[in-house]
Amino acid sequence: MKYDHKHIPLRESMMAMFFLVILAASCTKDGNPNNLPSVSTAAYEGKIDGYSSSNEVFPENLIAYWSFDDTKNELISGTAPGSSANDSYVADGVRGKALSLAAGYLYFPTQFQRFKTDSLKSFTISAWIRIQNNGSKKTMLFQLARPGIFNGNINFILNTNAYPATNTNLVIQPTFTTVGGGTQDNLNNALYPTIGTTKWTHVLLTYDGSSGVFNIWADGVKIGGFPNRGTGNNLFKSYEPSEIIIGSNYNGIPGKTVSTDANFAPMTGQIDEVRIFNKSLGDAYVRALYNLGKANK
Question: What is the pTM of this model?
């Protein structure tokens, strides 16, 4: 029998090498055991939080949208305001142009189908604003109004009365009506977004109709101090009929006054990219809307 220089039979040596190769192959870890498709980094170039624009964030749940690019219409339904006052456009919006109000408002005397009781259980309201405190009057940024009633289904209230114009801290105190006929609210009592005539500030509300959690967000940060509003009779209800007012409540619209309450004045400031969803957006998506807006996307 022929031997190699280590005195191991050649045939046995070759067989040993063969089994070592097989063993090594069987021990190699498969880096893609589920056969997932390959991912190219090029697909994410220029994107923010995975999105190319704010339009890509839950478009299937977007029920109302105002871009204010030379139009006051709500773009999903194509609905124009029934009346407006002291409004114009400014060129340096968050995305394109923005709406500028000088003690002004937009009033939509329309029952939007997607704001009916059976359709709206949870919601997210997102807007960008440039505004100052005034030390005397509150601002109703957005109201899902109830004809003839002072408090609407949703009242996106900015307490611009809390501080003089020299103070750049904003107090936000939104409210909503409940199944039991009452009102629930939230308030930022510890964290305050910075506002000013040259700063776009992102303000956002989320409400989850299954848990009763009502959050206030500003510039990507959760700031509300009282988010757990309860369930049962404390859950939100979108009473019908309803209308939409941007920048005011009924008492600021000639001929629509419903009470003697003079705590609010029509809005002075700019507003852009108003988006309303029929779901409570998760934290990552809220921050994505903020980051995309910062990048004018």
Answer: 0.86
